[in-house]
Each structure stands twice: as C-alpha cells, then as structure tokens.
Amino acid sequence: MDVVLNQAFAGLSMASILLIIALGLAIIYGTMGVINLAHGEFVMLGAYTTWALQNHAGLGVVTALPLVFVAVAAVGWIIEKVIVQRLYTRPLDTILATWGIGIILQQAVRLGVGAESRFVRGPQWLSGNIEIGALVMSNYRIFVISFSLAILVVTWLLMTRTEFGMKLRAVIQNRGISECYGIEAKKVYSVTFAYGAGLAGIAGALITPLFSTIPTMGTGLVVDAFLVVIVGGLGSLMGTAAAALLIGEVTAIFSIVINDTLGRIAVLAGIILLIRFRPRGLFPSDIRR
Amino acid sequence: MKRREFLGQAGAVGTMGLASGLSVPALLSGVGRAYAAADDIPVGLLFSLTGAVAVVEHTLHDAALMAIEEINAAGGVHGKQLRAIIEDPASDPATYADRARRLMIRDKCVSVFGSYTSASRQAVLPVTEQRDNLYWYPTLYEGRECSRNVMYGGAVPNQQQDILLPWLVENFGKKIYMIGNNYVYPKEENNYCRILLNDLGGEVVHEEYVPMGHSDFSSVINRIRAEKPDVIFSTLVGDSDVAFARQYRAAELDPEKMPVCSLTRSEIEVKAIGGDAAAGHFSSAPYFMSNDTPENQKFVENYKARYGADSVTHFVSEAAYFQVYQFKAALEKLDPANISPTEIRDAAVGMSMLAPQGEILIDPNLHTHLWPKVGQWQSDGQAKVILQSEERITPKPYAAYPGQQCTGDGLVKS
Amino acid sequence: MQSRLLYDIIGLALFAGVILFGVPALFGYDGFELNTFSRYLSLAIVSMALALSWGTAGLLNLGQAATFGMGSYAMAMHLKLKASGDNLPDFMSWNNVEALPLIWAPFHSLTFTLLAGLLIPAAVGGLIAIFMFRARIAGVFVAVITLAFLVAFQLVVIEQQGLTGGQNGLTGLAPLVLFGWSVDIYSLSFYYLVGACLMIALVFGLYLTHSKFGLILRAIREDSERTRYFGYNVANYQTIIFSISAGLAGWAGMLYALVLEFASPTYMSVSFSLAIVIWCAVGGRESVLAAAVGAILVNLAEGRLSDVFVEGWHLLLGVLFLMVVMFMPRGIYGVIVDAGRAMRRKPVSKKEAQPFETSLNPKRES
Amino acid sequence: MSQLEVRDLHVTFGGLRAVDGMNFDVEQGEILCLLGPNGAGKSTTLDLICGKTQPTGGSIRFQNLEISQMWEFERARLGIGRKFQVPSVYKELTVAENLSVARSVKPGIWHALTSLPVRNSAKMREILDLVGLADKIGEPAGNLSHGETQWLEIAMLIAQDSRLILMDEPTAGMTIQETDRTARIFRSLKANHTLIVVEHDMSFVRTVADRIIVMNQGSKLAEGSIQEIESNEAVKTAYLGH
C-alpha cells in the first residue's frame, strides 16, 4: 500500500514534467499545425539559461524563471520570424525544418558552452520532504507539480479570457476570415510560437536540478512530449493535461509492477493502439477548424 | 612476416589490379599492414566529440592528446613526432567502425586510442583483429574479452570489487540493492558481485536495469524506500547516474545510512551531480583526482593548465593518458624503421611504469595491473580515499567464470 | 510524365556508369574507399525505399530504421551462428541462455536468412500498414505510430539481451560465404555485389513508380479520399507500397551488417530514422533515384566534412539540411527538373515549382 | 426494378437529423435533380449513396444489391461515381494522368502493377475533345483555370464510365455558355448513364432534369416533373416562394 501511494506520487511528478514540456508543444501544434521537433532544444536552452544565470548572476532556479521565459521566448520568436513562418503552407516540412533547427541549436550550445554536463543547484528552501504516514513527497517535486498546474491555468485563461486568446481562436478557426477582420494572423502566430518556446524554457529550468544538463538533453524529451500531445487530442489543453497524467501514472504503475523498460514498452504499445482507435486523441478539441 | 615482403607482394599485385579488377582483393589484405617509414608516427584518436557519450569521451580525448603533445614537446620517439589523427565517431557504433577503418586502413595508424562504451569497442574490434592493429582501450569494462589486439587500460570486475565488497558488507550491512543501465557491463559486474556476496553471506534484495539515458528515477527511489537495503550498488552510467544521484538527494535519502556505491561514478559525473548531492557516497576506482603522487600532481597541473582550472581528471582519463605513455615506452624498445602494431604489443607486455595512480604493469593478457581504491565523495567534488589495496591487483578478465582464463595466448578453457 | 521517365532513365544510366566504373577508378581500387562506398550504397537502398513510401505515396515512415535493423540482425544472426560453430553464440552463454533459442535455429541456413531479411521486414511493415491504413490513419499520425513502434522495438531488442546481444548488438561475425565464395568486404567484387543490389532495387523502384501503380499512389498522396471514389482500395495500395518499402529497407540492412561486420540496436534509433529522412529529402523524395543519390551525397559530405571540421561538421550538416528544406523543398531532383524545364521553355510556371502538400490534419469527420 | 432504391434512409449527426426518412427510386438512364434550401440534406444524400457517410438506418439498393454497408471503393466498383462540390482533381498530375486514374475499369493492384500509367487511347482523346482540353493533355492540372478544372472533373467522370453518377453542383462558377455546354454533355450521357444532380441553377435544372425531388429538413417535400414542382404550393412556401 505504501508503495502504491508513493508510486502514485511518482507518477504525478512524472506527469507534471511531461505536462510542462508538452504544453508549449500542444499550443504551437494546436495553433499552427507545426510539429516543433526543436522543442526539446528549447527545453535545453531553458536549462542552460538557468545555469548561466545561476553561475554569472547568482540567481536561483525560481528567481531565474521569468528571465528564462523571456530569453527562450525571444529565441522562439526569432526562429518563427526567420524560418517557421515561411513554411506554413507545407506543414509536413516543418517537422524536417524544426529538426534541423534543433540540430543547429544543440551544436551551437555544444560549441559555445561545451559538451560537458553542467551543474545547476536546486533551491535550498525547497529541499527536504513532506511525510504523511508512509507517503514521502519531495518538496521540490511538489513545487514542480504545483507550478505545472499554475502554468496550465494561466495558459487556459490566456486562451479563453483575453483578447489575445480570442484572436488566437479566431485564427485557428479560419485564418482568412480573421485577417479580413483586421487580426494579424502572422503576429498571432509569432506570439504563440514565442509563448510555446518560453514554456519549454521554463520546463528546462525546472527539470535541470533533477536531471543532467547537457546539449543533447532535449532529444529524448521531445518524443515523449509529442506523444502526450497526440494522445491528448490536437490543440486541447485539458486533453494534454489528462494525457500527461495518464501516461505518467501508467508508466509509474508499470514500472513498479514489471520494470522501467517493459513499462515504457507497454505505454508505447498503448499509445499506438489509442492513436489507431482514437486518432483525434482522448479529448478532441472543439476549437480546431 | 617482414614488412618488405608485404610491400613487394603488394606492388606486384597492384599493377595487375588495374588490369583485372577482381584480383584486387589480394592486394588489399596487405594494405593495412604496410606501415611506411615516414617522418612521423601516425596514431589514431577515436573518441566521440559529439553525441551522447561525448561528455566523457571528450575528456579522454583531451587527456590522450595532452600526452601526445607532451611527448612531442619532449622530442618525440626516436626523434620522430607522434602525429595524432583525430576522428569523431559521434557516439554511434556504426560510425566507430567506419572511422576505425579510416584510421587503421587509410591512415595506416600503428595504434588507435579510443572509446568508452563496450558497444563501441566491439564495433571497432572486427577491423582491429583483421588488420592485426592495436586498439588502446582506457575504460573499465566487464572482462570477458581476450583479444590479442586490444590493450585494456581500465579495471575489470575483480579489480573493482575484490577489496570493495568485504569492506561494504562489514561497514554497512549485507543487504545490497543493484541498479544499473541495461547492457552487458552492469550485468557482468553484478554477476561477479553475487559470487563475492555469496562467500560473504550477503544478500541481493533487488536487481534492476533501466534503459540507457533513463532519467526519471522516482519509481526506483520508491522501491529503494520499500526494500530498505544497506547499500545501493550502482553501475549506472553517464546521464542516468547524474539524474539518479540528484533525485536521490532530492528525496533526502541519507548517505550515512544508505550510501550509493558506484563502480562508474568519477569526478566528471560528480561535477555534473554537484558536490552536495554526491557527498558521502562512494566509488571504487584505481584512481582519484585527489591522489597524492608526484606523477598525479604533474598530470593534474598540466591538465588544468591546458583545459582550464575547473576541468577534472578521472580514472578513465588517467588511463587514456598513461596508455599513450605505455605506447611510447613500447615504441622506444623497437627499431624505429620497423614498427608494427603487433610488435608494439609484444614490446609492451610486462612493461611497468609510474602512472598517476601508482606503478602499473601490463599483463601478458594485455590487461593492466592496477591499484584499486575506494573513495568517499566530498562536497568539493573530490574523493577522499578511505580504503586502498595493499598490493597491485592482477586483472582476471574471466574471474566470474571458473575454467576460463585469459592468458598471453588468448582465451584458455579447461 | 514522359519527361519524368526520360529524366529517370538518363539519370539511372549516368548513375550506373558512375557507380560501376567511375567510383572504383576514381579511388584507384583502394579497398578501404570501396568499403566506405559500399556502406553508402547500402544506405542508398534504404533511402530509396523511403522515397517509395514517403515521396510516392505520402506516407512518412519514421520507423524505417526498425525494418532496416531487422534485416541487419537477420544477416548478423546467420554469421554469428557460423562464427560460433557448434557452440552457443558467446553472448548467449553470458546471459545464461542454455540452448539455442528457437528463432535462431533456422538462421543456420543462408537461404532462409536471405529470405528472412527481406520477407520478415516486409511482413512486419505490411502488418503495421494494415493496422494503420484500414483505420485510414494518415499524415502526421503515420509518422507518430511508426515512431512509437520504432522506439518500442528498439527497447525490446535491447531488453532481450540473451536473444539479441542487447546494447552491444551482434559482434564477432564470420565472413559470409556465398556459393563457395568467401566474401571479402574490402574487395571490388563485394563492392559490385552491393552496387548490383542497389541497381536492382532502383530498377524495381523505378518500375513501380512509372507503372500505373505509381500513378495511383501519387493520386492517393494528393487526395486519398477522392481516389476511393474511383474504385481503388486505397488501404491495399498503401499497404503494398509500405510493405515493399520495409522489405527493401531490410535488404539494405542485410548489406549494412555485412559491410560493418556487426549489427547494433543503434541501427534502430530515432536519429538514424531521421537521418534517412534527411538523405531522402536532400536528394528529392519524388524520385527513387534522387533519394539514392541524396543518401550517397550526404554521407560522402559527412565523411569529408568531418575530416575538415572535426568539431563543427554537425552544425554544418544542420544548416545544410535546413537550407535544403527551406529553399529546395523538392531536393536536388526538384532543382534539376526545374532547370530542365526552364531550358526547354522559357517561362517557368510558379505553381509547378511549389512542393506537394501532404495533408497534415486528420480527415474531418463531418 | 429501379436502378437505385432508397428506403427510409436516416442519418444523424450529433442529434441533428440531416437525412430523415428519405424514400426514392431512380430509373436507368434518368436525370434526377435534387433541389432544396441549404442544409436540406441534398449533399448528405449523395454522401450516403456513395459511401462517404454511413447511414444510421435504412437501406440503399443499387441494381438490387444492398450497398449501405459497403466501403466507398466497393460501391465505386459497382458503378457509382461522384463529383464533389469543390472541384477535386489531382493538381500535381497531368490532365492525361488524371483521366488515367479515373479510368478505373480494373482497379486491382495487380493490374496497376502491370500497366503503363497513361495510354493514349482513342477513348481518351474523344473525351478530351468533348470537354475541349485536348491541347492541355500534358499540362499539370494545377495549371488549369477554374472552368477548365471543372471540365476536367467532368471528363474524369465520363472516363470512369459509372452507371450512376452523383453530381454536386456541377455548374457552380461556370459562365452561361459553359453551363449550356454542360447541359448538352449531360443529355448525351443519359443514354448509358443515370445521373443524380444537386443543383441550384434553375435554368440548368429545367434543361436537363427528367424528374425533380425537393428536399427540406432532411426529407422529401415533393417529387415530380419540373412543371409539377413549379406549381407545388408546399415547395413555394418552403423554397421558391420567399
């Protein structure tokens, strides 16, 4: 029983990390149909920005978050302007182009900062555990879980309660008509892409105290995040959250019952079946076209 | 066979080769062994500078390159410079095989220094053995290999575990939890560990393997909490080890009660883990950066001067470094006009030299006699040696398999 | 259409000339260079196989590396058994496997191995295809399912160490003996063997794309829905081309295992799969010949550039690839076709220069 | 026996009854026009017949064979052809290739593997002459004008040679001359083909229709000749009378 409780928390913790990475991807995909394979590299940039801020400006992980968001969003904005914008008419090519961008970012960091793993200190005030009976929860992981929920809520509000969100949904529904009403679709796309990239940066900042910070750290993450987006249903925020939770918990349960490898295989098989029988995902979005 | 004979044969067939294309193969089998008596001595460096294992391999590359340049600065060997030919196999076994061929066949290197993972060594092995070249492999590994074309500079299981296990059981207890990445090295180390534990009356409470690059250890940590072992016996490598250590720390598991004892964690991983998270845990290795010998002081000083004050040396980069010196010493025993990989090998056997870790010796089975130590990590990222073998330990690559022995004549089964 | 056929036939003739006579002469029959080139030629086969499914039928198969790997393991299993003689393969005894596993036994036979290396990948590809295309999965979902399959398959191969050699793969292989001829992989004859395999694959691929079958596939790529109303069983067409493509990938894998003398789970990695996509895109996915040329050129460039720019060549490759995607979306093939058209009649139609689009979004259920 | 018998056909989309109990027959060699306001279920009826949409209830019999559970391609093979509202030709294929895809007498893979992609048959030239695209034979369809694209699609339907052709607004966007020409082609098709046409252009309907069915809210409102429909009070209220 103790193991089950602890494992449920572990699943939640994995889910929160998946969510925070997948959210940016989901927004970008949902809005412009671009599968951003460079997303993992945005996560990596976030981690490195955190490292740079900690080493050169003495900022902690949490205080660095806004700066990281802005920095990575700026990179995303430039990439959208220079490259992605030219490819909206050929969506499948964006997979290839963003993969190329990913290689370039990764190599640029490797050449600029070095290949070795960088150390980022976790926040001191979040060290330690909360223990409730046999359930042991790391404070930092609780923080990551809460933060991911906060980001989810903020993003949801942004999409549904602001003027930008309204414009965004209009562009998603019908780009041509929205432009007739004076909405600059190009601008909306740029801002959305930048926002998605910024979220990836935050994800990078948050996971770096737990993982190892190297130029290739994003490559493995993007596949998982991508699966979460697809399982959740294209462009659906709540679907993405539910899918992250589902995949996190199922992985956690499988890994305790069998082992981590077989757990992952089982989850992948489940994802394949799910896409086969529900290609629109668990929660198909009602706003998509 | 003498080199001249090869050249004669090759020349004859070479002219025929253009006339009748299909007889060319006869020529080619000679190509790799025709080492021209050039002005310098080509040696290959085959360490990944990019990709997943670049983090470690780049430091091996740096150490080996430094040794080469030190030797060249001191006048080379027999007045000839060593010419380092650098290839980047990009952490991909297929590329290792491809680049090894370039070095051994096209560039006619008399030796190649390279690689960290078992998979990459095995990818390089076919061409090395066919061309009778020599591959200097600096990494600790699982044993169970007895090639006559590989110089093994790292520890094999008996050199890492023989002094470690009795000490662990005595000081922490008999319940061992094994965690490793899913490939041959961790499994073989754990095999050997089980044999030792059997004699010591220890017990394995759980043995598990995670995929290479696995980074979320929440489940593993939960299981550790549930099993309550005395020691975590870790053979995790690279990013997995870093992630595990950081999450172990974030979960507030206490190294005093339940330390992680790693066979693979070195200064370079600790630097990424952070001194705080690594402090209190143990590693077993023949070399630590803090080793107090004149040879090591010089090694560390030169290394830092060259690659920056925050760079670290570790037990694999030390081997990458001393192997170049072993190579040099072997060359010095040979006739400069007449060197070949096999002759270098034969000259190297039985040779001893002072390495940063102490005086080492090359066994006839081409493995190295080393000085095992156990270090406890401190928060400054350095290890404090708390246990040191009283004697140099002989490498026994097949220690877990009675009836098989790696000797100077290759693998002998009885 | 006549011009397409003309281009391809002229191209094939030129290509065959270069590969069969030019390359060996250029490299002075040097064993190492021939061996390196044999490697490129075997990769050209897997690239052209992807052009069949991706370029012709619009099915972006990111699991191409899985079927490639199956072929390479089939060949490696045969050679491993040969190297082991009467004993168990060494890695099996390391993993405490007592007797030869059942699925290994038939690989003693070379005939079985050659068939298995072709047919098992084809069958697996076919099954995945039936699974997907019966449900009318299209566009990006094909990419996701095949990607997930690839990741899972690679994990299984690594996990089953006693059966597959795990992370290290299958090493210590014996040379192949083909009709009494012991294959020396540094020989010109081996180079010609691989070259002949590539030529056969190319002729086969060109035949497929220039038959009515190829035309129907292009129609399906553009509008699969519409094609159904002309009475074509779209799922069957997709399944057949997917399976053929997978089989060819397996074939390429067999040659690759021969060239490199080992089989490794890294042949089934995501990055390898994406690399195949790059080669295919650089050459031009619309033509099998161009895809093959793309594979050779990129690998050649990679080999040469990495000599000059040890640290920076990966970056260079990324930039090169991005440039191709952005400014030459139809690859080298597109550039040549456009140039050819411009020479024949002055005004180049804007529309033709546009790349084809593959539907990204799921078909709307209305 | 009628060529097509539709009985009690229903389809519901999320509570909306798009087609609600349609019954009608179509005779061999007849041109039937479907009229009705937007959303009356005309296009959906065509979708149900060609298999684009699965019915929730009812039966569709074509040449005395129940087809409502068949795949689209199976229905196409039986001889049901479809032209969609939005012109859908293959833009990257040439005109000749478009016709070759449409000419699907033998749609099997084996036949496709053993045939040339395009054969310059007399039949093809005849069709191209009919629609006036003979000089564009090697042109990619993407280069054609809007009108030419419409013609190409009609040519494709002729090439397909279906016994029953379902047309969704074939004259949309055509000039008066083009509409006349289309009408002439339709009348000439009548000998060997049956046509069901959804159309808004009443003058076109008057020229071609043998019989008219007016639909409203998913069911049949009226049926008869053009005169009967034009004098029908219910139709006037629902559709013609404003």
From TrEMBL, chain A:
TM regions (residue ranges): 12-37, 57-79, 140-159, 193-214, 221-247, 253-275
GO-annotated biological processes: amino acid transport
Gene Ontology MF terms: transmembrane transporter activity
Pfam families xref list: BPD_transp_2
Membrane topology listed for this record: Multi-pass membrane protein
Subcellular location: Cell membrane
Keyword Transport part of the UniProt annotation: yes
Keywords: Amino-acid transport, Cell membrane, Membrane, Transmembrane, Transmembrane helix, Transport
InterPro entries: ABC_transp_permease, ABC_UrtB_bac, BCAA_transport_permease
PANTHER family: ABC TRANSPORTER PERMEASE PROTEIN (PTHR11795:SF447), BRANCHED-CHAIN AMINO ACID TRANSPORT SYSTEM PERMEASE PROTEIN LIVH (PTHR11795)
Name of the protein in question: Uncharacterized protein
Species annotation: marine sediment metagenome
Upper taxonomic lineage: unclassified sequences, metagenomes, ecological metagenomes
Automatic annotation (TrEMBL), chain B:
InterPro entries named among the record's database cross-references: AmiC_PBP1, Leu_Ile_Val-bd, Peripla_BP_I
One Gene Ontology term from the biological process aspect of the record: amino acid transport
GO molecular function list: amide binding
Listed SUPFAM superfamilies: Periplasmic binding protein-like I
One Pfam family from the record: Peripla_BP_5
PANTHER family registered for this protein in UniProt: ALIPHATIC AMIDASE EXPRESSION-REGULATING PROTEIN, PTHR47628
Name listed for the protein in its UniProt record: Leucine-binding protein domain-containing protein
Automatic annotation (TrEMBL), chain D:
GO CC terms: plasma membrane
Keywords for this protein: ATP-binding, Nucleotide-binding, Transport
Signal peptide start and end residues: none
Domain ABC transporter: from-to ranges: 4-242
Pfam families tied to this protein: ABC_tran
One MF annotation (Gene Ontology) recorded for this entry: ATP binding
SMART domains in alphabetical order: AAA (SM00382)
Designated name of the protein: ABC transporter domain-containing protein
